Fold these 2 entries.
Entry 1:
Amino acid sequence: MEHLTKRYGSHLAVDDISFEVEEGIVYGLLGPNGAGKSTTMNILTGYLSATSGTVSIDGHDILEEASAAKACVGYLPEQPPLYVDMTPREYLMFVAELKKVKRADRAAQVEQAMDRTGLAEMEHRLIKNLSKGYRQRVGLAAALLGSPKVIILDEPTVGLDPAQVIEIRSLIKELGKDHTVILSSHILSEVSTLCDKVLIIAKGKLVAQGTPEELAQRLTAGSSLNITALGEADAVMNAMLTVPGVSEVQITGQQNGETSATVQVPQGEDLRAAVSAALAAAGCPVLGLTTASMSLEDVFLQLTAQAGDEEAQEVLENQEEATLRPEDLDFVQNAVESGESGEKPWLENSEQPDEEELRQENASAQAEEEEADEK
Ligand SMILES: Nc1ncnc2c1ncn2[C@@H]1O[C@H](COP(=O)(O)OP(=O)(O)OP(=O)(O)O)[C@@H](O)[C@H]1O
């Protein structure tokens, strides 16, 4: 992709993105909602045209040699376009025909794709009766038909339950063995476990790329040391500030004569020995010392924050376990209090059903049940 730009009216969704994809590697496009991942993938697959810039797949320009370029790509959009009144096999045979797989090879290719995606036991069900996870598999199987070199997956695990997420992720890992895979995700842990290389996109710009480890290392402003030493905060802080290279010390706790602190360390330097020696010399023996390096999460936050993206914080927060927000706590508190006093303030504005209405509703429901039982 070279200098790819996409405008929707005056909105710049993709802003001069260039990158090259090596064969046989799993790439992750990582970015918060609205960063431009789907737009980028839609352009890559020839689904959308770019405002400017070029895409070339295995030497074929996506506009000038569209058929040849698209033949190299298997695409699973965020919402796979399935014909839900077909069975997986019927649908896949149809896709194989669209992809111009030779008639003699179609049945075998469909069989193989169903096999790889674990669809065999669902082959006679209508797609509309399949779970979201199985529908996703049908979409993946369709992407595999025609043996494309590159598989492009847009948010492949969105909307799946945890068991389905695990299955689809292991399937993607398998695909990565024989294909070049480009997937998009806003889930950091997914990208760092599945992908060999990560491209971080924020506000339509490519802000960083590298292996998850490289990103975590290369982009850190340095690591930090977490230290616990015996002594008062002032003494501990002053001792550490005497060490060349230490410019920032943050006291994080004080208890029973012990002080905990975090020290920022410049990139590439190891100050553990110097800091321990300085503390010992100041009469503050070190009780604990650990190095904390930046995780991919930190890097992501740092980069997207640089791009002025507040949604990045949301992405991280959404990955934490569900927690109660202050307004939820108020609601729970109200519910508990009013339960004690017998009031239901949260129902105050809702329409209260009339008692007679309720009685009639229940009676007719009971009559229907009895009738059903008799039948
Ligand atoms: N057809 C369209 N018309 C106008 N604006 C659009 C259109 N499609 C996307 N956008 C805008 O372009 C930006 C990038 O959208 P895109 O869907 O590529 O982001 P994304 O990173 O895939 O986000 P998500 O994870 O929510 O799918 C967003 O601000 C979006 O609102």
Entry 2:
Amino acid sequence: MAREQLSEVSYGWNGFADRQDLATALAGEIADRLTRAVSERGTALLAVSGGTTPAKLFAALSTAPIAWDRVTVTLVDERFVPPSSPRSNAGLVAANLLQNKAAAARFAPLYHEAASIEDAAAADSEALRSLPWPLDVVILGMGGDGHTASFFPDAGNLEELLDPASQRIVLPVHAASGGEPRLTLSMARIVAAGFVALHIEGEDKRTAFNGAMGPGAKKPIRSVLEAAPRRIEVFWAP
Ligand SMILES: O=C(O)[C@H](O)[C@@H](O)[C@H](O)[C@H](O)COP(=O)(O)O
């Protein structure tokens, strides 16, 4: 894993010839780390992102021969929609990851029907408190604007979202660029993970990532890289 050192931020760069090679390699890395967590602490906690990128990865990971019945899967973030919605990350995970061998995993959703996104976030923080924190593996995505999770640059509460000291587990997000209101794991919970991978695909995303690593206004993805106590590994394919 090549190392890029930039001013005060570093990350591992793992480039692949094509998206299926990336999915196979990253699924193997995740499976190894989940297996190690189960052997060390009897359980493992995985958080994945939604969007259009992860489907191949989810399909590859779903067939991994690991002790899925000891694994809890949750989401890095979620749109404030029910699982039946085509916009639902829970629906995406159910259809693509919690299949095959991974169907035996426990799933902890972020979306709960509530009067407001604020009420849902508060309910989430209570419901998720009993999960076996810290996360063992987090898979992040990134938008062309440098957002990751639901840390959108135009979020009204971006400072709170990026606060590595926040004790909250789940935070509400209102950001026009994010579409529906969102629920997102807090920065603190994400960066405390044993392994964080950033999964991006396509030239535009590589350009956006490199831009976020350069001078200029700090993008949320850079804030996450800087806050992470362990080097984050970037997985990219054209
Ligand atoms: O709910 C979401 O949309 C994701 O959690 C979000 O953070 C995603 O990772 C990026 O927006 C990239 O999305 P694409 O994979 O669709 O480009």
